[in-house]
Every structure is written in C-alpha cells, then in structure tokens.
Amino acid sequence: MATINTNMAANIAANALTRNERGMSQTMERLSTGVRINSAKDDAAGLAISSKMTSQIRGLHQGVRNANDAISMLQVAEGAMQGVTNMMQRMRELAVQAVSDSNTASDRTALNSEFQSLGAEVARIGGNTQWNGTNILDGAATSGAQAFQIGANASQTISHTFATVGKNSSTVTQAATQAAGGSQKQITTLTVAGTADGDVITGTVNGKAFAFTLADHDSTSAVTATTAAHDGTGAIVVAKTAGTTLTFTGSANNIAFTIENLRVGNGIGALVGGYDITTSTLAASAITNMGTQITAMDTARASTGATMSRLEYAADNLTNVAQNSAAARSRIMDADYAAETTELARTQIIQQAATAMLAQANQSQQAILALLG
C-alpha cells in the first residue's frame, strides 16, 4: 500500500538505526573506560558481585599492610630484647667472675658497679622501647594479648603478648630518717608513685641489694606484707603500710642503714635489679637467678619470632588471595577488547547500512508523484 503520512520502511530503518547506535555507544564506552560494567544497567548482578569482591580485595591489601606493620612492631621489640639478653649474659658473666675467691672485696665492689649499671639499663630499655610513640615492653600500654587485624573481615586477627621487661614511669621519694641510737630504731619511709600490682622496688641497703614486690597494691588501705633486707649485721624489716608507702625499720637500736640506688620496675628488668654480687654467696645466687631471667627472655624472644614468622606467612597468603580475587573480578568487570572491537566494527557497518536504507526509504515516497502525474 502506497502512503505518504506513514512511511513504514523509514520507521523500520530509523528504529534499527537507534538500536544499533545504542549498542555502538555502549561498545565505545567500554573501549574508552576498559570496563565492561559502567553502570548498573549494563549488568546488575555482575555489578553487585564485583562490588563485594572489591571490598574483599581492598580489605586484603590493607590486611597485608597491617601484617607488615605488626612485623615491624615485633622486630622493634625483638631487637630491644636481644640487647637485654646480651646485657644479662654479661651480668651472669660478672657474677661467675665475682663468685671466685680470687677476688678481693674491692674487686667485687667494682664488678658489682658494672652489674648494677647493666641492671638499670635493662629496666631503662624496657621502659623506653617504643613503637609509634607507644611503650611496648613496659607491661602497661601493651598489657595482655595484642590483636593484629590481618584479614578483610572482622575477627580475622593474629594475637601476640609482649614481654614485660621494665618500666621508667614510677618515682620513689625518701622521707626523713629517724636515726638509730639510744632507745629508738632507725626508720626510713619511701613513697612510691605511679605503681601497679606486681611492680618491684629495688635498691641497696648499706650497699646490699634488695627487691620488694608491691603485691596487693592499694592506695588507701594498709597492707601487712613484709620482707627483710640485710645490711650485713642484721635484718631491716620492710612493711608496706599504705599501698604506696614502704617503711624500713632497723631490727635493733644500734643498726644504722643507708638506702640508695632506688628504682621501680616490673617484669624481667625489675627482678634483675634486685641481684647483688658483692659477696661470693650473693654472686652464686645471682648466677642462678640470671640464668632464670635469661631463659625467660629467650622464651619471650622465641614467642616474638614465632609470631613474626606466622605474620609473614599470613601476609604472603593474603597477597595470593587478593591476586586471585582480582583475577576473578577482572573476568566480571573488565572489557574484552577483542570482542568489543569486533562489536564496534559490526555496529559501524550496520550504522552505515541503516543510514543508507533510511535515505532509500525516504526517497521511495517520490514514486507516488508518478501516480499523481
């Protein structure tokens, strides 16, 4: 049927051209961006899946960074503990030297001077070793197990408990002394600030080392815990009377004593600070005690090393999972350039053909004029 108002051939050609242009535009967009899914209409299900995979991949990459940060943190701790081990080995060596009776009293005093200095340095390292501004070996900021997030999802962690080597935060003040003599015993009071349960106060009484554990710490109520510190002639009774107060009382009216080298510590460093090698007997005891502390430090270093090894394997695994997840996402999201260039060539040819057919359809209406003539 020949009509003028409705040119069906032109309408068909125009609709075909519109659909082809839509496909060609999509192909050109994919080739321009390199992505197959540029909007939800391209592949709604694929978009949802790829978005979830992107969350996992980015989480895995962050988990790798977290694991590497944790390894660095543990390396700082292990490096400090290695230094502490070396010093404790030297302290034990000094104790072995001092135990021999080939040494005079002055020799042992000189050996003890180095011994005590090394003990103080052990505590100082414990109180000053930091990672990112946080003390990691003082038993405070890193008390208990520390969790390192090494996965893309919640609760995917590896935990490690840092060793307590020492602290520097506490202070000790020595009050006025009631002198010994006549009818009164010497009484010296120490006030300890910034302490916690298990902290150890160490020092010397007339040159002899002592250690006192601040157990049952309470800043308000009295505590009856006592211990003894020897001055060579008698016992000095120590009582913790109000949680943070230590009272040193001579056992007899004629015993005078001097308290020196005071410091507060915890963990391995505090225990080391309570040893003495000024006599053969004390040196023999120090050999045994230092051996115990070296073993404790070796155990802590072994635990740290094991955690570092585990974190390295975890980081390698996370990297592998992220790589495979990225490959899977690529198969969903990325444009296949071979297929898309072929599609572009097809749509360009059809566009040219459809344009020619639309022109032909419009030209065919001119035949009606022949009927009118």
Question: Could you characterize the architecture of this molecule?
Answer:
By secondary structure, this protein is an alpha+beta fold. It is built from seven helices and twelve strands. The protein has helices spanning 8-33, 44-99, 105-128, 267-272, 280-333, 337-364, 368-372, and strands at 130-131, 134-135, 145-149, 157-161, 171-174, 187-193, 200-205, 208-213, 226-230, 235-240, 245-250, 259-265. The strands form four sheets. A five-stranded antiparallel beta sheet has the order 5-6-11-10-9, with no helix packed on it. The chain has a three-stranded antiparallel beta sheet with strand order 8-7-12. Helix 1 (8-33) packs antiparallel against helix 6.
Features:
five-stranded antiparallel β-sheet, single chain, 373 residues, alpha+beta
Instruction: Give the amount of beta strand, in percent.
Output: 15-25%
Derived structural class: alpha+beta
Number of strands: 12
Euclidean distance between termini CA atoms: 18 Å
Low-confidence stretches: 218-227
Q: How would a crystallographer describe the biggest sheet?
A: 5 strands, antiparallel
Q: Assign a percent range to the helix content.
A: 40-55%
